[in-house]
Design a protein that fits this description.
78% of the residues lie in helices and 0% in strands. By secondary structure, it is mainly α. The protein contains nine helices and no strands.
């Protein structure tokens, strides 16, 4: 199904960025912190495996990959330019990969075949570990660095401003998510699919606000920062 191919293509793009970031962060960690080095190495290996699995699923029945978008590439590029370890972990793991937990659950529920459902579930397990590390790292940093919240807030605002002129989520990806949730082209099913995607967006927002709250952001500030997160999800 073309919708599956398009979503898999989108996931490959995003997982490539999620692969590069921990690999780049590895060189910033002092060798004394062996556990952190090992965790980042495993995270990079996870993402490399995800890229392969999603690519194989996209090309399972032959044909070509789906479309890419300028807005999507700009969103991912803004992640790659962040030099600070904690801020990069915040943008990638707490906000981006955290939102992907909801997306992968959505795909597991609505995928039209058992292969896609299974890989969505298994990848989600990996991503949950990445998110847990990011949240745990930042909870510790917030407890010892009173200026961290301001830096994290500024990073979200800076990224939002840089992406203001972009279109956000690739329309082909958005349409594919609606179709997967609909299960058919019948108008009533498409309407239900569209509603399912709106619920997905709300679930992503709730998850981001919850994780921001764990880091010590007040409810109103957590809601405001979540609303500024890129429309590309990652």
């Amino acid at each position: 199904m073309a919708a599956v191919v398009q979503v898999m293509t989108y996931l490959v793009e995003n997982e490539q960025a999620a692969l590069v970031i921990p690999g780049r962060l590895l060189v910033q960690v002092h060798p004394h912190f062996r556990e952190v080095l090992q965790l980042l190495a495993v995270q990079a290996a996870d993402e490399a495996r995800h890229v392969e699995v999603f690519t194989r699923r996209a090309l399972l029945r032959g044909g070509e990959m789906g479309t890419s978008s300028v807005g999507g590439r700009a969103s991912l590029a803004s992640l790659l330019t962040e030099p600070d370890f904690s801020v990069a972990s915040f943008l990638l793991s707490v906000l981006g990969e955290g939102s992907f937990l909801n997306l992968l659950s959505f795909l597991e529920r609505h995928a039209p075949d058992p292969v896609t459902r299974r890989i969505s579930r298994l990848v989600r397990q990996d991503e949950a570990r990445h998110v847990a590390f990011g949240v745990g790292h930042l909870e510790h940093r917030a407890a010892v660095d009173p200026l961290l919240h301001g830096r994290l807030r500024a990073a979200v605002e800076r990224r939002h401003d840089a992406l203001t002129g972009t279109a956000g989520l690739n329309q082909d990806v958005s349409d594919s998510l609606v179709l997967l949730a609909a299960g058919s082209w019948a108008p009533g099913d498409i309407a239900r699919g569209w509603q399912a995607v709106q619920r997905l967006r709300n679930e992503m927002d709730e998850g981001r606000r919850h994780r921001l709250g764990r880091l010590g952001f007040p409810d109103d500030e957590a809601a405001a920062l979540s609303a500024l997160h890129t429309r590309n999800f990652m």
